[in-house]
Amino acid sequence: MGKLTNLRHLQNLLTTLECLPKGISRLTSLQTLNEFVVSSDGDNKCKIGDLRNLNNLRGELGIRVLWKVEDEREAQKAELKNKIHLQHLTLDFDGKEVTKGVAAALEPHPNLKSLSIQRYGDTEWHDWMMRSSLTQLKNLALSYCSKCLRMPPLGELPVLAKLEITDTGSVKHIGGEFLGSSSRIAFPKLKKLTFHDMKEWEKWEVKEEEEKSILSCLSYLKILGCPKLEELPDHVLQRTPLQEQVITDSDILQQRYQQDIGEDRQKISHIPIVKYEGE
How many other CB atoms sit within 10 Å of the CB of residue 179? Predict the structure, then answer.
């Protein structure tokens, strides 16, 4: 494999490979590599440090089995910050914890457009996941990070347009920490917001502050599989330009906003499209 030094495209999406051959690290002309599978054993298998010289990678890259990264120094060798042509990055931790140093070393370059963090196994988000340093990020998905106890301040991401949060199972309350505190504008460009399978989520609070704009572009809200969520913030329902709201498998919300008989139906009567389960 390492002899194909002029190879530019290696498509391995949806394969069942448990590792990649060591020679990939010498393919410095490579532009397309859908998935990089991390190994921690054997001289002929790729460790994450073998990404170091693949700085021509562009488009989309998924890095799987990240729990096998041995230590911070090995993660630093990947030099993800130098992969400036990447547009979309997926980091899959397989639900297992990695050290804080390893998580820190996986910080991508600041011009990334799309990021997916899957099965992150720690209770706290790492610093770079908590900051607004990803200034060009438009799409973000946090999936199956079931041990996390609170949301990062995603409202500080200046151009984020689409946010999907799936199964952060330990989160019971979402409040001001979600909006962030370093800016007078929270979620200035967010248009689509989806919460999916938040089984323990009970309260969502948006406390309005003078001189602070919140979710000023939100047009689509979907709540799916959040059975304990008691109500939606008045600010989200009445002070954002919502055009479509979808509520599925969330019995308390469906009863609260149900047409004609729901106690808070009047709060969403102005939204052009409101859908419930089965509609």
Answer: 23
Residue with tokens 């919300």: 253
pLDDT digits (tens, 9 = 90+) for 89-137: 999 998 787 877 888 899 999 999 999 999 998 888 877 876 667 999 9
Tokens 């309260």 belong to which residue?
A: 203
Locate 53 and state its tokens: 């010289």
Comparing CA positions, the residue from 160, 116, 152 lying closest to residue 134 is 160
pLDDT tens figures, 26-75: 888 889 989 998 887 766 778 899 999 999 999 999 999 898 888 889 99
- Which residue in 201, 209, 204 sits closest to 237, CA to CA? 204
Report the C-alpha gap between 163 and 171 in whole angstroms.
Answer: 17
The length of the chain is 279
d(CA 167, CA 153): 18
Residues 255, 174, 160, 76, CA torsion sign: negative
3-class state of residue 81 by DSSP? helix
Nearest to 92 by CA among 116, 122, 59, 58: 116
pTM listed for this prediction: 0.91
Secondary element (H or E) of residue 195:
strand 192-196
